[in-house]
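A common beginner's mistake is to predict each chain separately and then try to dock the pieces by hand. The better habit, illustrated here, is to supply every component at once so that their relative placement is modeled jointly.
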Amino acid sequence: MKYEPVIGLEIHAQLRTRTKIFCGCSTAYGAAPNTHVCPVCLGMPGALPVLNRQAVDYAIRAATALGCEVQPVSVFARKNYFYPDLPKGYQISQYEQPLALGGGLDVVGGDTPHVGLTRIHMEEDAGKSLHEGFVDSSRRTYVDYNRGGVPLIEIVTEPDMRSGAGAAAFFSQLRDILVWLDVNDGNMEEGSLRCDANVSVRPVGQQRFGTKAEVKNVNSFRYVQKAIEYEIDRQIELLENGGTVVQETRLWDSATGRTMSMRSKEEAHDYRYFPEPDLPPLVVSDERVAAVRATMPELPEARRRRFVASYGLPDYDAGVLTQSVGLADYFEQVAATAGNVKAASNWVMGEVLRTLNDRGNTIEDVPLAPDALAGLIGLVDKGTISSSTAKDVFARMYDSGRSADDIVATDGLAQIGDESALLSIVRQVLESHGDAVAQYRAGKTATFGFLVGQVMKASKGKGNPKLINGILRRELDGAA
Ligand code: ADP
Ligand code: MG
Ligand code: ZN
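With all components supplied together, the output reads:
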């Protein structure tokens, strides 16, 4: 029998606010344990939550960019469960009335061109249990509440994906958009972005979905793909052997490359949701949505299309240059100053990205100012230096803060565009390469390229190639 996998994701993204969702504690990552805490996020009796406006605006921004309907009224609820990293004994989350409904994302590549979204809701993050690196860690659990109360959005997809690779492609493109929007830092190692994968299989042709298992704790795109692929194989094998898939929560173990049962449906929490009595319903006006929309950066897809339409760039260039806001901004600044858009694109996609990659840097680290690169492009356009010299100048200017003009003048790199100077170099070369000249005149015209190369070399790469070609032809053919 043939089976079709069905996958839906639940993605938790921390919002990049400076302070937590219901109190003024810092959200900064990596502080000493339990230093970013207060009575509110520690759940002390009598402490009252106050909703962070910025968190709401970020959530609206993400929802709007993903095409969701932001709801005029949404409601915070208490999700009750007992866990050491949850000091109140409940998590404040949205349940029956989430912030946003619907929406979706067009996915480039992968096997699902469009993944629908069910909802986006707001909630607070829990603290973190630590099991390693402390006194008597094998018998004790330590808890760090710094993360408790950091604002999250949970993005729930429709069960639209059909493979591990398709789910990973969606997740990675969703991450790019959240980072582009500046609502999430995309740092999966620090847990700012986390994914649970719901997986089921059904016989091809069957309408009804199979029973799903939810795989938690998947912390990279590669693991999302691997965990889902493992889970698909496990479920198919189970069914083929006459078994049934049970609804359960499973944990991905990256060390063994398997998923393991964590708790079954019988052990599932009964969260006993009820509306949070300490917070009024969240009311979001159309004006507020419009105001958030007005401050939103142009989305990657729109910017890519604009680069093609208004700059006349090839699709390929536009795709590369819109990988991040920073890169797109950098390119546009170079292009605006240099005027020569295609050259700006070539330099940014070529030397700039190559140098950044070599050093493991991103565009935010680039020491070369856009105006400085534009200056270099200008020198090539004016014919002051050749494109090969320009690469050399680029390397000299990259970290030095020196301008291209300065380097070309001080280091004596300007192109030799003086006819008489080049003529004397050409004559010297012809004299010392009598054999090649004879071959050329005997009809072996390919030798011409060799001679151009020799003149270039003799001019230390500074000869204007166009002039050299002309002079060489005249000297060779004229004297024949
Ligand atoms: P639960 O109530 O168990 O949390 P939901 O209906 O809220 O389940 O769905 C949670 C996630 O699981 C969503 O992303 C949804 O698309 C996905 N999902 C639901 N049913 C299935 C299924 N049969 N197979 C795979 N994914 C599913
Ligand atoms: Mg769920
Ligand atoms: Zn606090």
